Amino acid sequence: MRSIFQATWPNRRRRLRRLPVVVVLLLLAKAAGAQTDGVNPGDRVRFRVGQSESFHSATVARMTKDSLFLESCSTCASLDYARADIKHFDVFRIKDRGGRTLIGMLLGALVGGTIGYFMAQACTGSADSCALSALAVPGGALLGGFFGGIAGFLRGYTWEPVATHGR
After folding, report:
1. How far apart are the first and last CA of the chain?
2. With 0-12 CB in 10 A as exposed, 13-18 as middle and 19+ as buried, what is 16?
3. Which of 29, 62, 83, 120 would bridge with 136, disulfide CB 3.0–4.6 Å?
4. 66-93 per-position pLDDT tens digit
5. Cα separations (Å) of 114 from 73, 144, 161?
6. pLDDT digit string (tens) for 53-67?
7. Are 118 and 70 in contact (CB under 8 A)?
8. How far is residue 91's CA from residue 80's CA, in Å, rounded to a whole number?
9. Buried b vs exposed e over 95-129: b needs ≥16 C-beta within 10 Å?
10. Do residues 59 and 92 touch, judged by C-beta distance below 8 A?
């Protein structure tokens, strides 16, 4: 008499052998459906049409291999365009905001601390009046780090170029 574990073991091995095939098929299906070059509904885009040098800024409703459908655009003549008519196409993306924030904080703290150091060295009064000038270095570093972090955070938003023609 077989136990339950012995009876199901061959089925389990068969399923494990099929797993790589299933994973590959899922990845191929995802790649075949990815005709939008990473542009999703709701993304903010800017583009030029024809010979115009001015950019249109809009929100994407849907994008296919050969067409762009917009949700809203205040400067556009229509809300749908052929991708062949679009001459320049960018998507507004968030790029490494955490790393940029950290670098901004470090650079801001370095600049603020340096300014604070020179301010503390410039104190020419008595010892009592210059006692608080020792706080200029850490205070400058904190303020510089705060404003540098904000600047780095805001630099995390960038316009990323996208291919204008479908594959």
Report:
1. 60
2. exposed
3. 120
4. 888 888 888 887 888 888 888 888 888 8
5. 47, 10, 38
6. 888 888 888 888 888
7. no
8. 17
9. eeeeebbebbbebbbebbbebbeeebeeeeeeeee
10. no
